[in-house]
Request: fold
Amino acid sequence: MSIASRLKSFLGIETKAAPSLADGSGYYFDLFGATPTLAGVTVTPHSAMTCAPVACAVRSISEAAGSLPLHVYKKLPDGGKEKATYHPLYKLLHDAPNSFAPAVLFRTQLVADALLQPHGGFALINRVDGGKPAELIRLDPQTQSVAVDTSDVEPTYKLNGRQIDGADLIHIPTPAYDARKGLVGEGRNAIALALVLERHASRLFGNAARPSGVLSLKGNATPETVATAKASWQASQGGDKSGGTAVLPLDAAWQPLTFNSVDSQFLEMRTYAVAEIARLFRVPLHMLMQVDRAQPRSIESIGQEFLSQALLPRLKSFEQELELKLLTPEERDQYAIEFNIDGFARADLLARAQALSVTVSARILNPNEARQIGFGLPAYEGGDVFENFNTSSAHAGGALNTGGANDSEKEAA
Reply:
C-alpha cells in the first residue's frame, strides 16, 4: 500500500472512481450535453431545431417576444405610468442594444436561447462612466459559452473559462425544471420521436426505387444476376420514374407487400409527436400549424391562451431581469421596464373599435389615447379630455365642460 493510500485510510478519506464511458448512468453524456434518447438519436439544441414542430414552437414564442415594443416607463404618484423616452436605457432597449443588432433581433435570439439552451440565454452588459449600461451584446452559445455554477446560493458565471460578475450579465433563464438540461434536454425523448419519424418518412419517400414489394428471380440466381436485376429495376423505377409501368423479365416475379399495423399508424404517430412538442413548449396546436382537429374555442381565445401561458411568462422573466441588472435600486422605485402587449392582443378591426369606444365612453381612456393604442394615429387638439361624447352634457357648453348647469338652465335662472 502506498504512503498516499495509507494516509487516506488513516484520515478516513474515501476514494471513488469516476464512472467509465461504459457506465449506464450517462454521467459523461450529461457532462457534454449529448444524452442518448430511447429512440436511439442524440438531441441537442441545434439538432432539435431541425425538427419542424420544435422550430415552429421556438419561433412562435421568440419572434412574438422580439416583435413587441419594449419601453421604459416612469411610475406616476397616482399609480399610472408614462413613457420615459428621456431615460438613457430607452433607446438601448427600444431601438438598438448595440451598433450591429436591432432590438427585435436581439430579443428574438435571446428568447430562443432561453428556450433551447441549458441554463437559458445570456447577454453581456458593457458599462461605461462608472457602471452605466452602454450596450448589450448577446452571447452566442456556439462561440461564447457561459458556464453556470449553482452549487452556492448565488450562481457564479464563467465566460470562456474566465469568471465574470453576474451583475454584468443579462440571464434569461430556461423554463425547464432542471436548468442544467434545459427544456430540450428534459423533453429530448419527445423531440427524438419526432426526429425519428421524420427521418423514417424521408427514407420511405426518398427511396422511391423500392415499391412496397419484393422482386424475386426464378431459378438459381447468381450474385451477378441479382445485381443486374436490381440495377435494371432502379434505373426504370427510381427517382422521378417511380409510379410508371414496370416491365419484368421472364424469370422475375413481383409480389406486393401489405402495410403492417405500425405502418398504418404512422400518420397518427406523427400527429401525436407534434402534440407532445406543443405540450413541451405550452403552445396551442394551431400555432404549430396543426389544424386538422376541430377546436371547441375561437381563434381569439386560443390566441389569448398562447399569450397568457406561453408568451407572458417569458416576457415577465425578461422584464424583471432587465430591471434587476440595468436599473439601480433607487431607479427601480421610479421606473419600470415592460413590454407593450396591446398590439399583440388586438382583435379584429370592428371588435377593437367597439372596445375602444366603450373605454372612451366610460372615461377610462381619452380619445387621443384610444387613437394611439388602437390605430397608431396621432393626437388631435381637444382629444385629451375625459368625457362621454354620447351624452348631451359632453357637448360644448354642456355641464361636463362648464362644471355646472348648461347654458339654457343658466339663462332661465
Notes: Confidence is low (pLDDT under 50) at residues 15-33, 404-410. The CA atoms of residues 157 and 163 lie 6 Å apart. The two ends are 116 Å apart (CA to CA). The first helix runs from residue 3 to 11.
